Amino acid sequence: MWLLAESKGDATLQELNLTSGKIQTVVPESTAAHALAQSPSGVVAVGVATGFTGAVELHNGSSGALIATVAVGASVKGLAAGADGSTLYVLNGTGTSSSVTLVNLQTDTTSASVPVPLATVGIAVQPTGQDLYALTAGGTVDEVNVGNGSVVGRFSVGPGPLQLAISSSGSTLFVLKRAGSGTNVGVIRLATERQQRAIAAPADCIDIQLSANGRQLYDVVGTPTYGNVQVFPVNA
């Protein structure tokens, strides 16, 4: 697993060995880096936000070396890797609009741009690539058709949403939420658009990721003084 870390004004990409729990490779990164996603094909994408402009850096998943940089229309707010291994979904926007730009990882070029709600804070994409889920700061999720940009569904996930992930089957959403002093991950069955249960999450959890087999949930914890990854069992 690759992680994006910042300490004392310096940013780095760090490769974490999930078997040993140790950092293997450290690559310097710009402090403008804001988001990270890893494609099934091995490409590590880093979203950059610099004022009103944005870009995605594409890195080699083995060495961390920079492969290419792809400009997008606005500052990058989040990233999601497509299950096909060749498509990257880039949440970007300004103070007046937000959209998801598709990047082809084989040609390092952008293609379609799909509008999403202005208050979108995170995205997840169906394994088929047909629809994407836009999580908003208000605690709702919009299901948006990637082909035509139409909103085909909307449901509530509760207050304090931070980030989301989707199971490899496309049947379950995991939504990281912070309400008051507590933090948890809501498990939402998409067939009913209802939360089935909540998984306790550590304080200061800022991101979540599912393992490839769907059996582990990785909770990324970070503050200005420390960071770690905690692993929880889950049936996705």
General shape:
globular
Using only C-alpha atoms, the radius of gyration works out to 17 Å
- Strand and helix order: EEEEEEEEEEEEEEEEEEEEEE
| Helix count from the secondary structure assignment | 0
Number of strands: 22
| Strand order, sheet with most strands | 4-5-6-7
- What's the overall average pLDDT, rounded? 94
State the low-pLDDT regions, or none: none
| Helix/strand structural class | mainly beta
Helix content: under 10%
Note the beta-strand portion: over 45%
From the N-terminal CA to the C-terminal CA, the straight-line distance is 19 Å
Query: What can be said about the biggest beta sheet?
Result: 4 strands, antiparallel
Detailed description of the structure:
The model has no long low-confidence stretch (mean pLDDT 94). A four-stranded antiparallel sheet has the order 4-5-6-7, with no helix packed on it. A four-stranded antiparallel sheet has the order 8-9-10-11, with no helix packed on it. The chain is globular and about 45 Å long. β4 (33-38) and β5 (44-50) form a beta hairpin. It has a domain at 161-236. It is mainly beta and 236 residues long. The chain has no helices and 22 strands. The chain is 0% helix and 64% strand.
Condensed summary:
The protein has 236 residues and is an all-beta fold. It has strands at residues 2-7, 10-17, 22-29, 33-38, 44-50, 53-59, 66-72, 75-81, 87-93, 98-104, 109-116, 120-125, 131-136, 140-145, 151-156, 161-166, 172-179, 182-189, 194-200, 205-210, 216-222, 227-233. The chain has a domain at 161-236.
